Amino acid sequence: MAGASVLIIGGGIIGLSIAFELAQLETRTRITVLERNRVGSGTTSKATGGIRTQFSSEANVQLALLSRDRFAHWQSIYGGNPRFARIGYLFVTAGDRQAAVLRTGALEQRRWGVEVSLLTAHDVARLVPGMATEDLRLGTFTESDGIADPGAATSALESACRRAGVEVREGARVQSLLLDARGAAAGVALQDETTLAADRVVVACGPWTAPLLATIGLSVPISPHHRQVYRTGPLPTWPSTIPLTVDLDTGLYCHSDGGAVVFGGGDRDTAPSFDDRPRPSDVAQLGEALIQRWPLLSDAPIVHTWAGLREMTPDDHGVVGELPDHPGIFVAAGFSGHGFMQGPAVGLVTAALVTGSPPPVDASALSPTRFRLNQRGHHGTEQYVF
Ligand SMILES: Cc1cc2nc3c(=O)[nH]c(=O)nc-3n(C[C@H](O)[C@H](O)[C@H](O)COP(=O)(O)OP(=O)(O)OC[C@H]3O[C@@H](n4cnc5c(N)ncnc54)[C@H](O)[C@@H]3O)c2cc1C
Q1: In this predicted model, what pLDDT tens digit does every residue of 287-299 receive, in sequence order?
Q2: What span, in angstroms and rounded, lies between the C-alpha atoms of 142 and 184?
Q3: Confidence band (pLDDT; 50, 70, 90) for 2?
Q4: In angstroms, what is the span from residue 130 Cα to ligand 1's centroid?
Q5: What is the pLDDT of residue 292?
Q6: What share of the chain is helix, strand, coil (3-state, %, to 5)?
Q7: Mutate to test the pocket of ligand 1, among 21, 44, 263 (most ligand atoms within 8 A of CB)
Q8: pTM (2 d.p.)
Q9: Residue 185 falls within a domain, yes or no?
Q10: 74, 91, 94: which is closest to 83 by C-alpha?
Q11: Which domain CATH number covers 279?
């Protein structure tokens, strides 16, 4: 592969992870990450950092298991420390329909290798002090899941990429993709009117992926949706650690951060928009759900609100693979709110696809071709979304 060149557009967790894994597989290929701003400044910088293995599709579960293992062994693989803490991940519901989803999900997840426990309301009350649990029908708990620091993860990956010989270019905004006469990858045009040639190009632009693919006339259904997170001031009565807890009925999620509480969610149905400015007054919409589940938070001061864009697809699964009519152009985007946790596995899978080697996880269900067959894909819509 002497003289070969791969361009990766996007310096978030996904693009960096792909670049690192490619550098392990093709030591003589010139690998360049093109990031329009600063590395890690995109949606990855807004992520809460939750890492879970509870999903309803096998593809998502296998990606999550592989990624979680990489987070657990991060230092020896990439160097640096994203502070992965196994605080556990808990889903709860008070409704019959969602209880059936969780029960069926747990059976499937066990089949796919996830250690998941079914909890009664009483079990949940013991696990999460301060939570109102009387009405709960069911909880499902994965003790080995947890949370990590997205900023620390991207900066560790950037260093790992540079050590592996990857060129990481910041301030390099790609204006359009370039095709040859057959429609195959030829390179990219940058905003500064220079061009870069490459016969393999990976588009990993998170929520901004669709506009770039539109430059070659493609319409890929990855749309940006506002997601907001709130942090309270220190609360003396709040437990220092609780599992990352999701109320599946309202979409509210919550975890401890030092002596404070971080919560968010419940905004899954916002209209698509690239406006990622925080909207602090939206906390009122979550208010009822929050206080119903966490009465202790009724007077908690909110000291910080931040927001970003989740890159959603119609079936809440990522899009990973080569574009069928455009050989050499690969997409790795649209992870629908679970791209941070899937990043390490997506790096391995995409690098394998780019080099033509067998991927460690069968991600064919995430192929971009699925949108041609059926807008919802053939694995069904992901049920564990909030
Ligand atoms: C508030 C919030 C909370 C979240 N919490 C979690 C969580 O707990 N767990 C989890 O797994 N996921 C979470 N997510 C989702 C997660 O953040 C994303 O799925 C993940 O970060 C996607 O990574 P990425 O590398 O694809 O995208 P990004 O980090 O956005 O990287 C894409 C990069 O491409 C660059 N780019 C775009 N266009 C161009 C161009 N034309 N030229 C050059 N560069 C370009 C951007 O500047 C950006 O840096 C959350 C998201 C939000 C908004």
Answers
A1: 888 899 999 888 8
A2: 44
A3: very low
A4: 33
A5: 92
A6: 35, 25, 40
A7: 44
A8: 0.96
A9: yes
A10: 74
A11: 3.30.9.10
Residues 245 and 367 both lie in one domain: no
Which atom number of ligand 1 is nearest to the Cα of residue 207? 30
Residue 191: which CATH number?
3.50.50.60
Q: State residue 277's pLDDT score.
A: 96
> What ligand 1 atom has the least distance to the C-alpha of 172?
43
Mutate to test the pocket of ligand 1, among 9, 43, 61, 222 (most ligand atoms within 8 A of CB): 43
Cα–Cα dist 168/165, whole Å: 9
75 within domain boundaries: no
d(CA 240, CA 235): 10
Domain containing residue 130? 86-144+223-312
Under a CB-based contact definition with an 8 Å cutoff, are residues 70 and 13 in contact?
A: no
Domain boundary among 297, 312, 327: 312
One domain for residues 341 and 367: yes
Among 290, 312, 334, the domain boundary falls at: 312
For residue 338, which atom of ligand 1 is closest to its CA? 11
Query: What's the confidence (pLDDT) of residue 267?
Result: 87
What are the tens digits of pLDDT across the range 370-383? Answer: 987 443 444 567 77
Residue of 61, 174, 205, 331 with the most ligand 1 atoms within 8 Å of its CB, for mutation: 205
Same domain for 47 and 171, yes or no, is yes
Can you tell me whether residue 104 is helix, strand or coil?
helix
Domain count along the chain: 2
Q: Which tens digit of pLDDT belongs to each residue from 139-190?
A: 999 999 999 999 999 999 999 999 999 999 999 999 999 999 999 999 999 9
Length of the chain: 386
Residues 307 and 323 in one domain: no
The reply to whether 282 falls in a domain is: yes
Is pLDDT above 90 for 280? no
Which residue reads 């079990």 in tokens? 123
